[in-house]
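$ fold --in a.seq
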Amino acid sequence: MKKAGITIKDLHLSFGPTEVLKGVNLDIKPGEFFAFLGPSGSGKSTLLRSIAGFGPRPKGSILIGGKDVVALDPWKRNVGMVFQSYALWPHMSVRDNVAFGLRERRIPAADIATKVQEGLELVGLAHLADRMPNQLSGGQQQRVALARTVVTEPEVLLLDEPLSNLDASLRVQMRRELLRLQRKLGLTTIFVTHDQEEANTTSDRMAVLDGGVIQQIGTPQELYDTPANLFVANFLGTANILEGKVETEGGQARFRTTTGDTLALPEGKTASGTNIVLRPQNITLQRDPGANALAGQVLHREFLGGQIRYLIKAGGAEIVVDQSHRAGRDWFEPGMAVHLLANTDSAVVL
């Protein structure tokens, strides 16, 4: 199966007076599993549909395998798309649904039979070839939709929130299946989702979008550990953000909050900024004062099984702190005075 890279250059798209894509530039490597991540209205699905050729023609360039396809009809782009709704023909069997695109391409019947069998074996549904879509579970229907797409041997596979109609446990199973299938085929794949967990667990790299603009591109770990701005920090996991400024005195950089509390920054972390981002797992609660600790008060506590989540008033903000749960370990009670020991090695100044 062919693997094609995708290059997007200065892409703009408007619906009437509303600009929904604002100068998007992006390079996706051949064989990469890439995610578009963002909230509703961020432009991620519009960008995906522009690659597929659906909707108004955007301004700019979309190169697939080095060929600009922005002016081509969808069926001339050699891309396969799996929709959120699966879009199976209800009156056709599983076998006929998978064969549909091949028949439209006037492929010989013997070749169609072989490709359909291979496609159904690939997704583990060969034994259900004669069933109708309404006799399948949601996960099985999604796998039929995948098989129908990959048997046409597209250069690029586009997935538009394909797991959003499944329950939580099935979503976990299906995202593993998606990744297994993608790795086996080596197919360049773009996965649109608003769910950071789905993007984190499947993608090689991702682009976070907001307001039709790419905010940051990188691996899931890069975006989580070193967000480029407050939007990315907040969107990827829980972020505690303290306002203030960086000060340097005697060669030591510190972040001073608006309430006058200070946190020492490690050597080399002297970037100027008015916000410091601390992740919940990088803060430790203790009863006694200590170096690099903020005084606070417990507002709320939640038991989450493997961890305890606290909401603490400190440093002029409400701070979320996650601590591992161990049997017999004392909990901090609401109203209790505590001190927050911050690991500023993992902090980001923005």
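$ fold --in b.seq
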Amino acid sequence: MLRTLASALRWRPLEKTRGCASSPVDAGREIQVRALEGLDQGITEILMNRPSARNALGNVFVSQLLEALAQLREDRHVRVLIFRSGVKGVFCAASSAVMGLIETTRGLLPGAGGTQRLPRCLGVALAKELIFTGRRLSGMQAQALGLVNHAVAQNEEGNAAYHRALALAQEILPQAPIAVRLGKLAIDRGIEVDIASGMAIEGICYAQNIPTRDRLEGMAAFREKRTPKFVGE
């Protein structure tokens, strides 16, 4: 089993590709990509721009989104990805948002893994309460329960959530990119399996990070009491 997991999780360096940036040609596209510059270099934004349908998932929208993600996945210069909306008042709304698992109020059962993932996040008792009652929660209530990481008061421009996301991206940006990537992989794959398999996945990811230049740089910077300079290798 460990050999199979190792094969599935083996990390391979990506080829250097041209960074993505928005251009006038992209103006009419439902999905637009913009690479930030200066101190924010390494952060890329995906702008959802379908105002006529309030960013509803249509064939063109989804096709362009998958195309953008496929290209960004192969770009080693992209360290953090932010999804934002070009439609005011639609994704995201910040602390004024209302959310809930309201399927039972319509005679339905939560789908898309709702009955499996929510208990893992919140515990069985609280997950049952939210699903059985169909209760709607404010952004602040959702944050208090751990359903969302952050809830911020809306600003006049309607983009308070974006600014919080950008600040979070700026915190992630200086960290070792391979370690972040493998940490994400260990969490995403590990949460889907039992604890023993999850620990095996974590061990495989940890082992892949050991020989990287970034790990050696991080240790050297710690000894020398300086800020590390990670290169993603």
